[in-house]
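Task 17 of the worksheet. Students: predict the tertiary structure of the chain below and write it out as structure tokens. Keep your answer in the requested format; marks are given for formatting as well as content.
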Amino acid sequence: MHLTGSPLQLEVASWGNNRLTNATCFLAQVYVMVKVGCHGPQCAAVRVRRIPKSTNDTARTVMHRIGGGPANMFDAYMSTFIRAGLSLYDLVEDRQIKPYASAIEAYFTEPDTPYSASGISSWDGTDVYPIGEVAYSQRFSQLLNTFWLASVAPHNITGTFGFRAHNVTRPTIESGSDMNIQNITGLRVPDHLVMRVDPSWLFTLFLASVGMLLSGIAAALFNYLRRGPEILDYSAFFSRDSPYVNVASSQLGSVEDVNEQ
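Model answer:
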């Protein structure tokens, strides 16, 4: 992988008892814009969008295999990356070749428990061929990215970096830690959970609202289509004092005969 965009080719081999698996990997660099959202101390990526490379971007990493780099950083990085997944047996001198699977190989088959995978203590090793090209590519990228982050920003991985606890008044390198700390201006929007919608009650409210809306439409439609005088809607008022309405003497009802009642 170079600044010109040419992918870096890697040959990765994995030994098993009955099969040797070779994977040809091509590493390319992409640029993305990430929107990060935080709720309290927990932060995560909300949206990720791929963007073209900026013309003035000259950022380089150890994966670019820069010619004449200091101390051959790429070879040092890859050798450290491989050794990080070896077992204690693999680090012993004059040992037999490849008796057990490494944690890196076990990560391809059992990513949740690479150090306690079933094949890590087996003499036959771990066969990574059945997982397929897609899963292999994803997990190999995860390994490289995680190891790279742990190399350049270990405190971000372990969560032990306190920004306020360090001197950030100016770019500096702490003595003994070789940590480059820089100040940057950002925008922080407070986010506090006030209420949470209950889906069942929201659905009930929606049904009730739709029912009332349909009832109103039906009432307006029936009122438009009906035939008859409107006075029939007010029968209680015009029949109260009408001489043509037969009301029993014990049930006289009028505001004019209060004294009689």
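Marker's comment: The beta strands are 8-15, 20-27, 31-39, 42-51, 172-173, 180-181. Residues 199-225 form the longest helix (27 residues).
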